[in-house]
Amino acid sequence: MLPLEPHQPNPPQSAKHPARSGILSGIAKRVCYLIMAGSALVPASIFAGLVMPGPAVDPVTVVIPHGTSTRGMGDLLAAHGAVRSSLLFHIGAKLMAAHVLKEGEYQITPHESIADIVLMIHEGRSVVHRFTVAEGLTVAEVVHNLNDIPILEGGVGPLPDEGSLMPETYRYNYGDTRASVIVRMRKGMTDMLADLWTHRDANLPLTTPQEALVLASIVEKETGKAAERPRIAGVFYNRLRQHMRLQSDPTVIYAITKGRQVMDHALSHDDLSFPSPINTYASDGLPPQPICNPGRAAIEAVLHPETHDYLYFVADGTGGHAFASTLDEHNRNVAHWNDINNK
Predict the structure, then answer these.
(1) Which of 257, 285, 291 is nearest to 271 (CA)?
(2) Cα–Cα distance between 234 and 310 in angstroms, integer?
(3) By CB atoms within 10 Å of each CB, which of 50, 261, 295, 329 scores lowest?
């Protein structure tokens, strides 16, 4: 006799996977069969009602609030057209899950049986949402976006430090708190910055990871072109080494707006003299804090800058920048940019 091969379980399916209903239907039928085999008190009609296809013809999303009883869950599912009978769902919850069901947001697939639904809610396979923090957003902007998500609970707590939130896509479920998402964002930035800092180039004019974060936030705001970031970082290092002010426009904007709103006018000469340690036209060296939450690429650019002799850059009309080593060359680039703007 050949030896039996070990059973290989199917990989878990996501709540939205089209094959999930069929797989779970088989599981549910076996569970119900065991229930029936162990108790002659369960009528065949109940077994049939639990495993028969449900009434939903389209996907149905049902939110089950905290503290909802199994009867209440059945009422919600019936009201959304996901089950035919609230009572039958209650019976299924008792027989198959001992009334141990988890609140949350669930997506019911078309014709999903009560048995499948009970198993899904028992296992807590709720809908997974995603929240993306784009590179360069300020803390105020991130918090505003978090507050606009209705299924998250509570406030964020004390406003995080600028630059402390990792730009990334985060998963969350119904009932998660905004504060818990912020904690994950902060941990992501702390861990990433610590890792990148240990692999930085030698002889950078920086003394702490926080200084790298500050400069990366400026580089992030200066360009949307990935290839330019190391070059712009090199410009700022050259200026720092020559004790020149960084003169970065985004620092002026942040100094004026505090990162809470969009600048409502183009920068003027008066704006450039706005009194603030964050304004790098008015203050020497690096600002005392970041001006946004920079992404990984901007931090890597600051820790691995391009080596060159450029001291200036200005927009070139193509979405990028023209770089210059002398003030005369820079002034010609500025004149060209002004000609483009005036056309």
Answers:
(1) 257
(2) 8
(3) 261
- Give me the pLDDT at residue 342, please: 76
Asked if pLDDT for residue 123 goes beyond 90, the answer is yes
Q: Yes or no: say if 129 and 38 are a contact pair by the CB < 8 Å rule.
A: no
Question: Which two tokens mark 118?
Answer: 């009970």
The yes or no reply on domain 20-123 and CATH 3.40.30.10 is no
DSSP 217-264: HHHHHH-S-GGGHHHHHHHHHHHHHTT-----HHHHHHHHHTTSS--S
Domain boundaries, the chain: 20-123, 129-189, 196-342
Query: Left, alpha or beta for 66 (phi > 0: left; psi -120 to 50: alpha)?
Result: beta
DSSP code, position 175: T
In this prediction the pTM is 0.81
Residue pair 75/88 in contact (Cβ under 8 Å)? The answer is: no
Distance of alpha carbon 278 from alpha carbon 248, whole angstroms: 10
Residue 1 has pLDDT above 80, yes or no: no
Residue indicated by tokens 């503290």: 67
